[in-house]
């Protein structure tokens, strides 16, 4: 696995960032997952607008056709135990070419980029008409090596989810993409559950993937709040993908793993605060601390009256705020000296009060 570690591959995220956004990135790329046509086109456009207002960098859709993604008779067992037809589910939520065109126009009008997750070469052919900035592949296609190869050959950046898989399966996917001549790759750690529990997040897998393959790694977050996204950012995640809903009352598919606009905005704010909060690691006095060094640190004070000529003993002194006088770390230099003048109880001790 170490064979993937090269300067060029480690720098792949920089190339991807430039591809997706004009400015250099210092915080993760935040993708608001809208999904397929789980609601009317009008509501989907409202979700895109909300993502833009929340500060997301991109929105993401899902591009598929029921006939090429599923087989009649196949079922899903949902988190609540209910069983539904895969074919019927996908058929109900297909985005048509006209839907893609309408969403493309809307995204352009409001100034937010979009990408999509295709599930078949026909979907890629459709998406190529819109010149996508990248392709996102789902965890369901991590082992679909012919499809990964086909997407890689398009020459666009790839964001690849790695849920439901072993490290060996990720290795084979990475080998396939690289062999196709595409090294512009970001892996996404992911737990496939809707919603996923924080205790199942296994975020250290982000570092495992980074170390194993040398490619940048992000998180596809299916938990119910921003907590794991913030932690992932602290662990070096370069992409955060999170589902967005207008309102949980709509009960759209994946809604339990989605954030409403208020929560999504909080996620964006907190994720973007992480690099600043981590800082540069240099231990120093910050400008905001200067006033507190005087007010909160302590000095030596007389606790009793000390007549001139009296030898200073430890029990004549106390230590308290503020730090306007002799600092406590000089206590040993004060003990044993004589008072040059009368020092009243409660007085701040200064060097000019003491004999040399």
Automatic annotation (TrEMBL):
Every copy of the AFP-like domain together lies at 299-356
Going by the entry's taxonomy, the superkingdom of the source organism is recorded as Bacteria
Q: Which CDD domains match?
A: SAF_NeuB_like
Among Pfam families, the record links this protein to: NeuB, SAF
Q: What is this protein called?
A: N-acylneuraminate-9-phosphate synthase
This protein's species is Azospirillum formosense
Q: Taxonomic lineage per UniProt?
A: Bacteria, Pseudomonadati, Pseudomonadota, Alphaproteobacteria, Rhodospirillales
